[in-house]
């Protein structure tokens, strides 16, 4: 849903992870979606990275000119990246204590660096804003 909304906003997206195998898994899942909800994307390292609306990567570079950066699997993001992007989403499993602690650490370091942040949760079945800084 977040990828679809980002494309609707006219943004190119980089999805940054930490494990190439997991990014390949995500690539396969995105190809299995419905035709109506197809999300054009590619894996970083190909000849057309700069043309990809959604680029899956483990690197810190965003050769597709992303305006939106989505962080998964405890990948890192800097305050400079946050201020350079239209939107940065740190996506994590709130039921995983390690992922939750990592997200809390990112929240703290980014907000202390002056970045504004919002925390959204869908534990109630729909997205709700839980905190803002």
What are the main properties of this structure?
single chain, alpha/beta, five-stranded parallel β-sheet, two-stranded antiparallel sheet, 4 helices
Low-confidence stretches: none
- Report the span from N to C terminus: 24 Å
> What structural class should be given to the helix and strand makeup?
alpha/beta
Helix percent reads 25-40%
Commentary on this structure:
- The protein is α/β, with parallel strands linked by helices and 133 residues long.
- The chain has one domain (2-96): Rossmann fold.
- It is 31% helix and 20% strand.
- The protein is built from 4 helices and 7 strands, in the order αβαβββαβαββ.
- The protein has helices spanning 2-8, 20-31, 79-84, 97-112, and strands at 13-16, 42-43, 54-57, 68-71, 87-90, 118-121, 128-132.
- A 5-stranded parallel sheet has the order 2-3-1-4-5, with helices on one face. Strands 6-7 form a two-stranded antiparallel ribbon.
- 23% of the residues are buried.
- The model has no long low-confidence stretch (mean pLDDT 94).
Blueprint of the fold:
Layout (H helix, E strand, L loop, with lengths): L1 H7 L4 E4 L3 H12 L10 E2 L10 E4 L10 E4 L7 H6 L2 E4 L6 H16 L5 E4 L6 E5 L1
Parallel strand pairs: 1-3, 1-4, 2-3, 4-5
Antiparallel strand pairs: 6-7
Quick rundown:
This protein is of the alpha/beta class. Helices cover 31% and strands 20% of the residues.
């Amino acid at each position: 849903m977040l990828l679809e909304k980002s494309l609707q906003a006219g943004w190119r997206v980089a999805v940054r992870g930490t494990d190439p195998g997991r990014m390949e898994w995500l690539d396969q899942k995105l190809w299995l979606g419905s035709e109506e909800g197809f999300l054009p994307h590619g894996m970083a390292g190909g000849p057309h990275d700069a043309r990809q609306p959604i680029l899956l990567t483990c690197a810190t570079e965003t050769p597709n000119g992303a305006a939106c950066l989505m962080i998964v699997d405890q990948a890192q993001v800097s305050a400079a990246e946050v201020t350079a992007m239209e939107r940065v989403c740190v996506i994590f499993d709130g039921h995983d204590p390690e992922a939750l602690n990592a997200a809390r650490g990112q929240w703290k370091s980014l907000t202390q660096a002056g970045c504004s942040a919002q925390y959204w949760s869908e534990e109630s079945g729909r997205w709700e804003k839980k905190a803002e800084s």
